[in-house]
Amino acid sequence: MTADVRHSDGRAPGPLSRRSLLVGGGVLLGGAAVAGGTAALRGRRWDVAVVGAGVTGLSAARNLVDHGRSAVVLEARDRIGGQLYTDHDFSSIPVELGAGLIHGREAYTWELVREAAAETVRVRHGNGAPEPLDTPGPPREDEDAAAYLRRMGVPEERWPPVSIDNEPLHRWSAVWMSEYGLFDWWSVPRENFRVVGGYDRILPPLAHDLDVRLSHVVRRVRWSGRGVTLTAQGPDGTVEVRADRCVVTLPIGVLKAGDVVFDPPLPTGHRDAVESLDRTDALKLVYEFDRPVFPTDEDVLGWDEDSGFVFWCLSREDPEVVVAWAAGENARRLSDLDPDARFADGLAALAEALGEDVPEPVARTTHDWAGDVFSRGAYLFVPPGAHDAPAALGAPLEGVLYFAGEPTTGENTVDGAYAGGYDTTDRLLAEG
Ligand SMILES: Cc1cc2nc3c(=O)[nH]c(=O)nc-3n(C[C@H](O)[C@H](O)[C@H](O)COP(=O)(O)OP(=O)(O)OC[C@H]3O[C@@H](n4cnc5c(N)ncnc54)[C@H](O)[C@@H]3O)c2cc1C
Fold first, then answer.
1. CB under 6 Å to ligand 1: residues?
2. Above 90 in pLDDT, residue 167?
3. Residue 395 in contact with residue 269, Cβ under 8 Å?
4. Under 8 Å between Cβ of 382 and 173
5. Which domain does 352 fall in, by range?
């Protein structure tokens, strides 16, 4: 549902396989070797410490370990995956509370799907105009995307439906969207796929045999040209982890909040980059019904209606599971409501979209990404004037401290995270 910069600009999709060095795949909890306690962390020095076990952090560690480097991954949550969060307990079918879709047939993540021997189903074609937008001139430096399209004379009915799964166009950098072909990415119909059995099926091929320390909240990163010392709060108390280098894959919301202290503070260019980037709000309200409510000939409702919600039917079996998706302004409005009111709001909108009453759900669930202190919002977007920020933040510091993930790529997809973890560590490895 979000921007895949890499494949949208017409460039070739990079190396054929990111996974060529990988042999086999894990089958346990993401296959990670999740070490207990903190004793094994003390008195050791790793080649690289990775902060965060989302898809970027796992890809980074995978690449390093496959190249013979020692790497430890410190993850604040009690699970891997970050914004890729499959709930297997809610219903008889796995429910995606975070990322749900693979966008397009060219995504790198198909490599992981194949390795996991997972099945996928095609969900729907993307929406929008069948031809690329005609924008005869370049955007201005600080111009927002809506102002740019207006100036280019593109009629509003042809504007890409970015706000459905993201922030409205007036919040986006026109330069960024233009440079990376995002106007067309959102406009041109595309195919989306869901991983049968849960999106998290793609994690074991990345995470197998990695040394991932769950429930280790990094609080401080002390860094210099000689290496890093991370201070983390683990299940057994405070630990210090030493490494020659560090890859930080924190989401932009966490970086902006200053939850992790950098000592010495990051240089101005990096701080400005963090300041200028932003994260969207997005949430899913998931309902389980004991009888069918969705029309049999539709998988998606509300896409074209600007109701603030898009409804997806995840399962036509008994039970029927329906997801109400909200992004941007509507997600923020919902986040301000108490949980009961939030679910009631989504249900009322579903009844309106169906044109008839809906029964009370037998179960419901959601995840509050804005209130989640290890995310502090959903995925990243690039506001007007911030088009240079990802590259600025991606510049390594003293050959020791590397940032990776959404804030350094400007991408906000699982595919982008997968490629970004590899790209950053390819660079680290090349630097010796
Ligand atoms: C609701 C929602 C729907 C989405 N839908 C899609 C979709 O359909 N398709 C798609 O491709 N993408 C989608 N995305 C975006 C996609 O999930 C992300 O772009 C991608 O997963 C980002 O991966 P990452 O590893 O860079 O960041 P994250 O997944 O955010 O990983 C960062 C990790 O850092 C950890 N962390 C935070 N603070 C600390 C700390 N102090 N110490 C240690 N660890 C810490 C976090 O717990 C997390 O595990 C969606 C995201 C959301 C939230």
1. 1-2, 51-57, 74-77, 82-84, 98-101, 103, 217-218, 249-251, 254, 259-260, 282, 284, 369, 374-375, 378-379, 405-406, 412-415, 417
2. yes
3. yes
4. yes
5. 282-368
Residue 384 sits in the same domain as residue 266: yes
CA distance 418 to 238: 30
The whole-angstrom separation of Cα 291 and Cα 294 is 9
CA 84 to centroid of ligand 1, rounded, Å: 6
**Cα 67 from chain centroid (whole Å):** 26
Note whether 345 and 208 are same-domain residues: no
Please report the sign of the dihedral spanned by the C-alpha atoms of residue 125, residue 129, residue 130, residue 134: negative
Residue 149 belongs to some domain of the structure: no
Question: Does the bond joining 319 to the residue before it have cis omega, within 30 degrees of 0?
Answer: yes
Tell me the C-alpha distance between 194 and 325, whole Å. 15
Cβ contact 421:55 at 8 Å? yes
In angstroms, the CA 201 to CA 203 distance is: 6
Residues 38-81: tens digit of each pLDDT:
557 778 999 999 999 999 999 999 999 999 999 999 999 999 99
Q: Check if the beta carbon of residue 198 is closer than 8 Å to that of residue 18.
A: no
What SS3 class is residue 50? Answer: strand
* Residue 26 in tokens: 């894990």
C-beta of residue 149 within 8 angstroms of C-beta of residue 135? yes
- What pLDDT is recorded for position 33? 53
Task: Report the 10 Å Cβ neighbour count for 354.
Answer: 17
Taking a C-beta distance cutoff of 8 angstroms, is the pair 377, 251 a contact? Answer: yes
Which among 343, 325, 271, 245 is positioned nearest to 45, based on CA atoms? 245
Is 164 contained in some domain? no
Nearest atom, ligand 1, residue 97 CA = 1
Tell me if the pTM is above 0.90: yes
Q: Which helix (H) or strand (E) holds 334?
A: helix 328-335
Beta bridge partners of 284: 325
Domains held by the chain: number: 2
Size of the chain, expressed as the number of residues it contains: 432
Which DSSP symbol is given to 35?
Answer: -
Residue where the block lists tokens 């009111």: 341
